[in-house]
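Researcher: We plan to redesign the surface later, but first we want a full-length starting point. Tokens attached.
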């Protein structure tokens, strides 16, 4: 029984990696934001969370943030700044670009 189970593990992993919805979910900007950013910036990007207040997280909807270039926002996400940690090792460059576009959309809501 154990050998059969061990043979099924690679098949299960392979099927998870090849299912389109699973790969898309990893690069979905809303999901990336929810997973990596909401703890401090909140679901609406306001920074109005306990962690956000303690860390003085920026309101991502503010003119100060929205007026920054895409390159500047990408750099902050990738390399971090001040108390914000770097996410370059965790989030792929293509997904950082999608995340910047998502942050831009927060100002319009």
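Model: Full-length starting sequence:
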């Amino acid at each position: 029984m154990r050998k059969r189970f061990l043979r099924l593990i690679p098949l299960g992993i392979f099927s998870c990696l090849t299912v389109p919805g699973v790969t898309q979910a990893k690069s979905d900007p809303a999901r990336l934001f929810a997973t990596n950013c909401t703890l401090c910036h909140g679901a609406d990007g306001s920074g109005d969370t306990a962690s956000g207040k303690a860390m003085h997280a920026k309101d991502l909807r503010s003119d100060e943030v929205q007026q920054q270039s895409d390159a500047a926002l990408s750099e902050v996400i990738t390399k971090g700044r001040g108390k914000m940690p770097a996410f370059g090792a965790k989030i792929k460059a293509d997904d950082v670009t999608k995340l910047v576009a998502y942050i831009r959309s927060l100002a319009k809501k």
